[in-house]
Every structure is written in C-alpha cells, then in structure tokens.
Design a protein that fits this description.
Ribonuclease Z; Metallo-beta-lactamase, Chain A; 3'-tRNA processing endoribonuclease activity; 18 strands; 304 residues
Length: 304
C-alpha cells in the first residue's frame, strides 16, 4: 500500500511552552508532502523530523492566529537559502495574501522560486487542491476569526496485478496498466482471460481530516464522515467548557463526540492549552466516548 502518513511537528496552542511547539503537521501521501499550518519554530521541527524541505509542495494555513502561521516567512526564507527552484503554493484565508507579499518583498527579494498564493473562502466546503492521486477540501470551522480545516482524500486506487497469472499467460509488461484499467487478455490460442482472473481488488481509498481551532460544531461529523483518521483540537477538558465556548475552542469530550458521530477510524487530539503539564486528563476524557483516541506529540508519525 502506498504511504499515507501524518507527521506531527507541533501540537501546542497559542502560549509557547518548553514542552510543545506551535501547530504544524506534514501529510505524506504517496511520496508527496503537504504542510498544514506553520507555527513559529516549524522549520526546526522539520530538521528534527528529518523531513526533506525541498519535497514540500504546498502549505495550507487554517487561520491567521500567530501560532498557526508565524513560521511561514522564516521557512520560505530558508527555502531560498537552500536553493529551492520549485514553486511553493500557499493556501490560506484571503487576508494573508497582501501581508505575505509585503514580507516576501522585504525579506525574500532574492529567492529564486515563485510563491503562489491561493485565497480560501473559509465559509464553504470546496475542493481547493487536486491532482491525479488526491483532493484537498476546505472544512468550514467556527473560531474567533475566519478559519477552516482540511480534508485530504485519496482518489480511488487501481487493482493489484496477480503476478502468477501474468507469468502463466506471459503477458508483456506493456499491457499491465491496461489490465489494471479493466482490460481482459487474449492468450496465444485466442481465448479471452477475464480481467477478474488477472487482478485482485484495489486497496480502499483513505482520508484524513484536520480540524483546527474551532468551537464544538454538532454537525461537523457530517463533513468528516467515515474518514480513517481525524485530528480535532482539544484545547481544554470538560471542566473548562465555559472557557472553551468563550474562546471558540473545543474540549476533549466534544472532539470525541465528533469522532463517534462521524464513525471515524482513529481520533488524534491536539492544540493543548499550556495549563496542562500532562494531557492524560484529555485523553481519558475522550476515550470514555471514543476509545480509539491518541494524543498528538511532536515527532509522532501516524499511519492514516
């Protein structure tokens, strides 16, 4: 099966701590790397994770609070120092566009690659990126400012070739892709070998949903229904529910309700308030509702 992984670079919230870095993740899908959010210190975390800078093709910024975007211009500058030539695509709320252009002109005048900005309408669910292997959709969220999450959805895969049948019928390599696409085979004696005998079913397509800063949305589960892995912010435990409502954040209990109602495979909690010396209370709270829950931690690599 082709790789589909999420690398956690940072999972803290707004106030810096010595334990957690500001929010950032890298999604590796079939060898293509996409960054989600880019808080301060992200490029150092990239070094620690041994993720190749040059392979990141696009950055998706959920909203314009500093703990989700202050690291972007520094990382772009470093890309320039490393001699990057490939374009970098930045998907973010429209308000970032003019600010990013000013920063690029002031700090990065000599870079030899293009930074292509794509404005996101955070109020609607829509496909904002697509290539031959996946789509990325925006997920409208409810925060103090314009904010959205992202849904990475793998496109349908081709079936697997049965090597024993290929050898038995002496099918040339040049025809393998046609067979994967559904073609039958005619053997040397003119007999048709059905496609079903030559292949085994494709692996099921996978999906990863990233729900950044948001208050609890009772209908959010409809948007992320059935995804393999859901990342949902869990800034507070339920004893701090009033504070969560005030600042448009979620509790671990609320994140687990979304996961349960959506029927997801796995829930990953993150964006922890600095008040917690350990996040065990958040994990325990979520597990009472959705047992297959884990805590995001810097350096964690998650198989979607």
């Amino acid at each position: 099966m082709e790789p589909f992984k999420v690398h956690i670079l940072g999972c803290g919230s707004a106030l810096p701590t010595l334990k957690h870095n500001a929010t950032s993740q890298v999604v590796d899908i079939r060898g293509k790397l996409f960054m989600i959010d880019c808080g301060e210190g992200t490029q150092v975390q990239l070094r620690r994770s041994r993720i190749r800078f040059t392979k990141i093709g696009a950055v998706f910024i959920s909203h314009l609070h500093g703990d989700h975007c202050f690291g972007l211009i520094g990382m772009i500058s470093t890309f320039g120092l490393l001699g990057r030539t490939a374009a970098l695509h930045v998907y973010a709320p429209a308000e970032l566009g003019p600010m990013l252009r000013t920063q690029l002109d002031f700090f990065c005048g000599g870079i030899e690659f293009e930074v292509v900005f794509h404005a996101i309408d955070t109020t609607v669910k829509q496909v904002i990126y697509e290539d031959k292997s996946l789509t990325v959709e925006s997920i409208p969220l409810e925060h103090r400012i314009a904010c959205c999450g992202f849904l990475f959805r793998e496109k349908g895969l081709l079936p697997h070739i049965r090597r024993d049948m290929i050898d038995f019928y002496r099918i040339p390599i040049s025809q393998i892709n046609n067979i994967k696409l559904g073609a039958d085979w005619v053997d040397d004696e003119g007999r048709t070998v059905s496609n079903e005998r030559l292949v085994t079913p494709a692996d099921p397509a996978r999906a990863y949903a990233y729900c950044s800063d948001t208050r609890y949305m009772p209908r959010l589960h409809e948007v992320v229904q059935g995804v393999n892995t859901l990342y949902h912010e869990a800034t507070y435990d339920s004893s701090m529910a009033s504070r969560a409502r005030l600042y448009f954040h979620s509790t671990a209990e609320e994140a687990a309700k979304v996961a349960r109602d959506a029927g997801v495979g796995k829930l990953v909690l993150g964006h922890y308030s600095a008040r917690y010396e350990a996040e065990d209370i958040l994990l325990a709270e979520a597990k009472t509702i959705f047992p297959n829950t884990i805590l995001a931690q810097e350096g964690l690599e998650i198989d979607v």
